Design the sequence.
């Protein structure tokens, strides 16, 4: 729900457990309490996508048996798989451009046990028209961080389970060339295309590839995107890392991004997601400003977490049982 | 995991049978184990053990997948 600062303060003072997304100027004014938050002025609300600096997006975590909040740096971020509840859900927020986010992005897929612990979350950001700084907030201590992750561990009743899923408009064409990378990297120079080494930046230029289309990897039918951040003379940078030993292809071109996004939303059967977040690239390319996508409301983000870091994806979580 | 499911899961992990779940985590798990099995074919029992642990942890979600896999 999208509410005023006063209403958010009231919920905190009533002792509610909250996940909050808002502009930094609002988060700074919140009192201590059982909440975590991240910065973004971009929100998908019940009334559509918007940029707001006078209201906050709040999820009330009213389905928890218990909760616990912790913060982590790059050296201990993967304690999240050890310190979570056995039957629970972890909401993880990391600041855009932070070392902890880069570490998580690069290494999460190789962490044993990660898939055994439902972990959902997002990368906090800022108003793209300004020079803001991405932050996360631990409401229990009243501290904010630009270089640490904040995790809220949510304990679920025994008969409940958290199911995390995503909506992704992109797929691949299996006849397209296979692109592979040598390491888990956020920027690359070289790669192989159908086994032949090339300079990736020059390959993109030569082929005239539309870099609004992400690279996609097929994880047993679930497509994981890696969005292109920029193409330089010699290097290509990404919003999430590419991984070694994974086959990538450029996504099949989507002619009407907004229409395709709406179609995928309508195909998805989520009824009552307790959390959702949507990539800022979907917001921009999909023209989501003023556009409703019920039942998915939540922060518009600089990266999404569904176990691992994702791009150009809507991520949501339902509680089943 | 009963014998029918186990036999089909082995075929899925070897890429001989295609099954896509509606559960993202299960698809990620299958992809991870397929990759591991490709690089070390001898680790099939460990892969099956990991899958069993995963499915046992999420019985509410696994029920649908197990029924679908039996029907393959």
Sequence:
């Amino acid at each position: 729900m999208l509410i005023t600062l006063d209403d958010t303060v009231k919920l905190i003072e009533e002792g509610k457990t909250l996940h909050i997304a808002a502009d930094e100027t609002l988060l700074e004014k919140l009192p201590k309490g059982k909440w975590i938050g991240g910065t973004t002025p971009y929100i998908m609300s019940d009334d559509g996508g918007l940029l707001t600096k006078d209201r906050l997006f709040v999820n009330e975590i009213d389905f928890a048996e218990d909760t616990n909040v912790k913060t982590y740096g790059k050296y201990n971020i993967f304690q999240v798989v050890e310190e979570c509840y056995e039957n629970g859900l972890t909401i993880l927020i990391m600041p855009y451009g932070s070392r902890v986010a880069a570490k998580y992005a690069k290494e999460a897929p190789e962490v044993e046990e990660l898939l055994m612990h439902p972990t959902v979350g997002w990368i906090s950001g800022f108003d793209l028209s300004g020079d803001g700084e991405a932050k996360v907030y631990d409401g229990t201590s009243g501290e904010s961080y630009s270089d640490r992750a904040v995790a809220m561990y949510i304990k679920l009743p025994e008969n409940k389970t958290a199911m995390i899923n995503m909506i992704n408009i992109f797929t691949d064409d299996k006849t397209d060339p296979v692109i592979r990378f040598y390491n888990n990297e956020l920027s690359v120079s070289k790669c192989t295309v159908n086994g032949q080494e090339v300079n990736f930046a020059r390959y993109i230029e030569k082929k005239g590839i539309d870099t609004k289309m992400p690279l996609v990897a097929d994880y047993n039918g679930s497509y994981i995107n890696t969005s292109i951040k920029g193409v330089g003379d010699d290097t290509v940078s990404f919003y999430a890392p590419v991984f070694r030993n994974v086959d990538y292809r450029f996504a099949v071109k989507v002619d009407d991004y907004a229409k395709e996004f709406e179609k995928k939303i309508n195909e998805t059967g989520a009824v009552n997601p307790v959390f959702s977040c949507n990539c800022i690239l979907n917001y921009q390319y999909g023209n989501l400003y003023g556009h409703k996508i019920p039942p998915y409301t939540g922060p518009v983000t600089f990266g999404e977490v569904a176990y691992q870091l994702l791009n150009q994806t809507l991520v949501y979580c339902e509680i089943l049982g | 995991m009963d014998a029918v499911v186990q036999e089909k899961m082995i075929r899925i992990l070897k890429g001989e049978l295609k099954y896509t779940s509606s559960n993202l985590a299960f698809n990620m798990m299958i992809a991870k184990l397929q990759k591991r099995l490709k690089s070390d074919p001898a680790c099939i029992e460990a892969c099956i053990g990991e899958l069993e642990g995963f499915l046992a942890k999420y019985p509410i979600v696994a029920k649908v997948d197990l029924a679908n896999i039996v029907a393959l």
The helical segments of chain B are 3-13, 24-39, 44-57, 59-70. Chain B touches chain A at residues 18-25, 27-32, 34-35, 53-54, 57-61 (CB under 8 Å). Chain B has four helices and no strands. The two ends of chain B are 16 Å apart (CA to CA).
